[in-house]
Amino acid sequence: MSARLDIIAASAGHDARTVLSDVTFCVQPGELICLVGPNGAGKSTLLKLAAGILPARTGEVRLGGQDVSAMSARERASHMAWLAQERGAAWAMRGVDIVALGRFAHEGRPYERLPEAARESVNAAIERCGASGFAHRPVDTLSGGEKARIHLARPLAAGAPLLLLDEPLNALDPRHQLDVMALLRAEAAGGTAIILALHDLAMARRHAARVIVLDEGRIVADGPPAAALSPTILANVFAVREAPDGGFSPV
Amino acid sequence: MMPIRVNLVMAGVALLAVLAALAPANGWADIASLGQSGAEGDLARILVLEIRLPRILAAFGVGAALGLAGAALQGLLRNPLADPGVLGVSGASALGAVIAVYFNLAALSVWAMPGLAIVMALGTTVLLYVLGASSVSTTRLILVGVGLSSLAGALMALLMNLAPNPFSLSDLINWLLGSVANRSWADIGFAAPFWVTGLVLVLMAGPGLRALTLGEEGASGLGANVPRIRLLVIIGSALLTGASVAIAGIIGFVGIVAPHVVRPFVRHDPGDLLLPSALLAGTVLVLADTAVRVLPFAIEMKLGVTAALIGAPAFIWIAARARGMGQ
Predict the structure, then answer these.
(1) Where do the domains of chain B lie, and which CATH numbers do they carry?
(2) ipTM value
């Protein structure tokens, strides 16, 4: 199955509240897309909808042409890996076992009992996230940034052709943020499709070929960063404008 | 592979505990006379095979079932303090048994009391499933369980309050204290199919419990079928708990303490936790019941009382140390 993801006229929400309405876009293999928008715009909801964790109320989500709602959880997870915004783990498991959960759709086992090839992809993901030094420690002894790197290694270990990452840069220092963006660009260059929710507009502008701007549950811009993050969008959606020093100031 | 080693060690310890429990007082002499013919041999066979062994196996089975149900529910709810008691399953099951005793339903059929205990445990979990599991949140499940537990307690208190004479009251209380004294092979034969079914269902949920470490949405994103895991654990633990309450009354805390002790030895893996927790909890109850038998009190101490005297302080200690419970 190809990693092509189609979201067609989809709406979604929680309980009585509609968070997303009439969202349509398409993701091709190898694309790196930054999803931006103010707090509550529906970024996390959109990623959950794409991952098949939240059902579409209207419209449809198709992965490789196949309706996601008709796929089993295991089938969905073997084609796409989702990183939640919350990085909680209920038990004091080791980092390697958390990353090994990324292989759940293939092998639902702890690190030591994974087949050789699967353990290699877990090791490789940990290595690329710079988490080798602390991956064998229980996650409740790790710092926020270390935890974030362990959790980022998990979807990478899945080897899925589509990654849906909810604020993967949270809790990371500037250098590690840049490392992660470089890592994701390399993944995309290898053919993986990636959608990541971000708050850092400057980061989105610098690293993504395509930016989708969400506002109040609707897509208000979708295109190259220069067009999608135009002064009009910045002012209307984010209530900021670019300051002469390269940062942003309130409108 | 570590869990296999942990399981083997625990199984060995359990076997030693059962053998030691067969032995006390003049136990070795009895066992030595097992093979003899004549009156002495018959007496020894009755004592060891018909009285002691079923009681020991009942203690082990009840402990193992409660330890397994506790470990499974903790994995499902991601909370180290969950157990059949928290969800109201034990309480409702005990209420069923108390109703049977109070209205003397046992006169109708010997299956009335155990049957009602299991039916109430299952009914409670189905109710929990309908009320709590229709949403994605297990917090609601816990809150509904706490409510059900209190309701069952209140109804049991009502029945005791209205008990017509001191004899029926003492009957009820005796039974609520929890004991495996005088359990026969028939009792074990009744409970065993429910225990085995519960064991199979809960073990099937093992890998899913591992995924649930990341929460319900997280597990679903990893490819786990969360409603199926929930159903396996709820039905499985209902069978385990109902059958245990039916043959031993209420025995608390072993379902919380055993998984807590085992957890560091299985690297906190909620799937690998299941079997060793059952083995440890079974061993603990066998030893506690042996202590109850050999302690030189004029009136025999009840197993449930001993378990609570040891378990309750351990529970408080675990609760006071628990960090970031449920998340």
Answers:
(1) 2-321 (1.10.3470.10)
(2) 0.92
